[in-house]
Amino acid sequence: MGQHSVSLVKRIEGFFPRLLADPERARRLYPALLLLFTLIVWFPALFAGLDQPSQDAFYHITHAALHHTPEDVTSWFVRGYWAYTHYEYRPLTRLSLLADYLIWGPRPLGFHLTNVLLHFACVFLLGAVMVRAGSPVWAARLAGAVAAVFPPGQMAVSWMNGRQDVLCAALLLAGVLFFVNWLVGRSWPHLLAAAVFTLLSALAKEPGAAAPLFMLAAAFLVPTRRRLWQRIGATALIAALLIPYVWLRLRAWPLDQYAQQNANQLRPLNTALRWFVSDLLAPRPYDLATTWRRQGLYLLFSRDLLSLLIEQLAFWAALIVLLARQRRLLGLGVIWKLVFFLPVYNLYWNPAFTHYRYLPHLGTAWLVGLAAWELTRYAATNLRRPGRALIREALIAAALLILIAHYVVQLPLRWPTWSVIAQGGPEPHPSFCRALDGHDVPFRLDEPRQPPEP
Questions:
Q1: pLDDT at 286 over 50
Q2: What's the per-residue H, E or C state across the chain?
Q3: Residues 6+ apart with CB under 8 A from 214
């Protein structure tokens, strides 16, 4: 019996080194496990029903139901569409909501499920981009797991109107993946696919138009044999293909009219830069900053202070390790945050609401996952003792699980009751049903085609 136990321990001790040395062993299993993990964590979001107290879900579902003639769909791409007090030009997002309605009808569960699946596509593609850019495979997989449960993504995934963010991010990441594939030697069709997906991401939401800036950075930081003029020319080509989109977007709602309409929400560039610096120096500064503004010096007595400080210190320690080991990937993660962060705070499309942080904070998950893995490798290298391999590996695995659990427990998701699950979510308000019959619709696409006077 003792010999069998010793043999089992040795077999377990040998399994982890083999798995880490050959990550391809888990290539087929990883996507399924990541999907299962994502669905379990976000299961409560499926039964959130209509977004409350916001009427965004009410608005989008009813308009997807009431306005889906071919002429309407064409107008979304040609002129944009009326949304509350302004025009929007996000035709692919509107088309995806229409597709949901045609499949699921007015049941909110179907719309929420699409959001969760798009979120899974984002976190999976994030890991794929990191691997193509030169990241260790397990670091990329850990970054994907972190992105799957990163708290700033909560609103974009669980809020029906977050469709624009998760759809834009999924298409953008697909475009970046094809572009990096081309950089590392794949054929020219990959570059064409990168251009197509970049355009589609912009048609889902405007930050997609900033993707060529990240691609330009990748052209210099990702190891490649492509010549300099090829890399710059490819990026310029992708940017040039966005010109018709930019023209239509500005035609739908000119920049000066947008600025007048949203003057109380726009921020000067220096404010945006200050927020970016604070965001770069901490994993989630929004939580720390808002807690400080609310509590002031009383923050020192807050029960959240210890966890906030530990997270900041751990993040800084990890960045120091990255500076020594993974400068290129560290630079790409920071540039991702820069490119997609500044539009959130002061540019054309994104007053700074919570779900707008989804795209830039994928860069934070990139850095956290990469840094956590580098610390893990450092620990595995420097904590070697004869006969203690299994204990060391167990401690490292526990540390990584604590990292993931740290983010999971901060998601404000509430598990639904069995009765709510059985009926597919809470009952919608009666006005929602009346709107689907063509009555009590708060906003219609046939309202004035010009933005209101400020």
A1: no
A2: CHHHHHHHHHHHHHHHHHHHHCHHHHCCHHHHHHHHHHHHHCHHHHHCCCCCCCCHHHHHHHHHHHCCCHHHHHHHHHCCEEECCEEECCHHHHHHHHHHHHHHCCCHHHHHHHHHHHHHHHHHHHHHHHHHCCCCHHHHHHHHHHHHHCHHHHHHHHCHHHHHHHHHHHHHHHHHHHHHHHHCCCCHHHHHHHHHHHHHHHHHCHHHHHHHHHHHHHHHHCCCCCCHHHHHHHHHHHHHCCHHHHHHHHHHCCHHHHHHHCCCCCCCHHHHHHHHHHHHCCCCHHHHHHHHHHHHHHHHHCCCHHHHHHHHHHHHHHHHHHHHHCHHHHHHHHHHHHHHHHHHHHCCCCCCCHHHHHHHHHHHHHHHHHHHHHHHHHHHHHCCCCCCHHHHHHHHHHHHHHHHHHHHCCCCCCCCCHHHHHCCCCCCCHHHHHHHCCCCCCCCCCCCCCCCCC
A3: 176, 335, 336, 339, 340
Residue position matching structure tokens 């030169």: 134
pLDDT value for 71: 76
pLDDT band for 443, please (50, 70, 90 cuts): very low
Domain boundaries, the chain: 26-436
Could you tell me the pTM of the whole model? 0.84
Q: What is the pLDDT of residues 332-358, one digit of tens each?
A: 988 888 788 765 544 444 444 567 778
